[in-house]
Amino acid sequence: MSQALLEFTGQTPGNLIAVLRDGVVIGSAVFSEDEPQPAPADVIRAIEAQSWDDGPARVETLGSLGSYQVASRAAGSDRLIVGVSLNLAEQIISRKNITTTVLVATALVITAVLTAWVVGYALRPLRRLAATAAEVAALPLAGDDHRIGVRVRPEDTDPDNEVGIVGHTLNRLLDNVDSALQHRVESDLRMRQFITDASHELRTPLAAIQGYAELTRQDSSALPPPPNTRWPASSRKPGGWHHWLTNCCCCPGWVKAKTCRPKSST
Fold it and tell me: Which GO cellular component terms are attached (predicted)?
């Protein structure tokens, strides 16, 4: 019987055929790519340990051969058992699972990398705006000759997107601040020029006043007061003329209110 089973051909590698008689295997064959071989002893014991009937095929573990889908049919006093190895199917499923896992993991990695790149690319204009703002914040603006020459790049001022709108608005803000700084500097320069010119123009009159004060200090009693003018008493004291005339030149309310009075010298 065993020899007859071994002579079967055209079987798929891994298939199993066995014949039971009174619960004992009297012949078996396991097919492979080479010559068929009798089933190993542990496989025979696993077959003999099972209860067989003409029911539907079922999955059994047959010793060292692994999982099989087996079916049995009665053949007179004997029972024919046929099994198809599930190892190949399990290997295929395992390979497919591994392949699927690798593909999914690769897709996730590629997606993460692309997402990070897209987000980084989209945020580059915003980073440039932040760098421009930081550069402006670090400028020393306390001096007279300091201007804000930093501006957002033209490609970051596109009004068709949100970042471009922010960049354009920031440039307008910088223009306004720079214009205000320039106006302040020009006002300071005009004020300094006015003070310089006024100081230069007043130098000669004040020198004359000082000389006149020195002259009157030598003989203050001989100097008659101007007609119809009320001279302060302090002007008759030594040094009073100098202070009085200086205050009259520098006091803007003298002409209208005539409230300017020299300080009393002690």
Answer: plasma membrane
